[in-house]
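Tip: read the tokens left to right.
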């Protein structure tokens, strides 16, 4: 954020109000039982990444200058470990989602994993086939152990919740989840892959009821529309 923001009358007025609110005491020191004067104000959610919170008093905390400098990496400007910890605690307290969860669905072999590999960059992905195969130390294209798949499926919700601590983009790769499973993952958007699978894939996936899976995907599309979840077909 430019100096124009920090020099604005609105920011100076808010900064002063926060210091008054905190009685000019360093709030982190106060948590540790120490009364130390504060002389600056810290944006818990950085202004550059979360401009929507720049004027929110709850996003500001009074600190002494030394502690404020410990909140950031002075070379990169990124939050330090201490700064990130404080942001995560605040996000949990205020139930603020830090990541976008994209649910990627489609019949077996429709290109779900290929799509995510292309767009993921430094995000995190949950691919049921890969995770189930990892439990068995097998290849995701050859392992169909039912118990492993059930375990991997049961971990999806926990992954979606915890991965938000580590990445801004989360991809959940599932063939045809039920509406209850989708609701548990609480996606921000849905991508439906409509690619076709090869003859070899047909042999590999003949144990699946493709008609039933197609019906579940149609139900998912209706669910997305009813709940105003953005949906993209590729």
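Filled-in amino acids:
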């Amino acid at each position: 954020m430019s100096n124009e923001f920090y020099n604005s009358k609105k920011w100076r007025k808010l900064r002063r109000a926060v210091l008054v609110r905190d009685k000019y005491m360093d709030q982190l020191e106060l948590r540790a039982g120490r009364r130390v004067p504060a002389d600056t104000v810290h944006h818990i959610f950085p202004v550059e990444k979360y401009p929507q919170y720049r004027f929110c008093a709850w996003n500001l905390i009074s600190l002494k200058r030394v502690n404020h400098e410990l909140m950031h990496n002075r070379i990169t400007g990124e939050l330090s470990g201490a700064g990130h910890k404080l942001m995560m605690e605040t996000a949990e307290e205020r139930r603020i989602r830090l990541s976008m969860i994209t649910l990627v669905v489609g019949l077996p072999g429709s290109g779900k994993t290929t799509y995510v590999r292309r767009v993921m960059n430094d995000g995190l992905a949950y691919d049921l086939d890969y995770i189930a195969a990892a439990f068995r130390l097998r290849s995701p294209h050859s392992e169909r152990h039912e118990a492993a798949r059930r375990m991997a499926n049961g971990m999806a919700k926990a992954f979606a919740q915890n991965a938000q601590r580590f990445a801004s983009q989360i991809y959940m790769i599932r063939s045809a989840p039920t509406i209850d499973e989708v609701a548990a993952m609480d996606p921000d958007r849905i991508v439906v892959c409509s690619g076709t699978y090869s003859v070899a894939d047909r042999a590999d996936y003949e144990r699946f009821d493709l008609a039933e899976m197609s019906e579940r995907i149609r139900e998912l599309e209706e669910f997305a529309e009813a709940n105003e979840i953005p949906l993209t077909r590729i």
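Residues 72 and 78 are 6 Å apart (CA to CA). The first strand starts at residue 40 and ends at 43.
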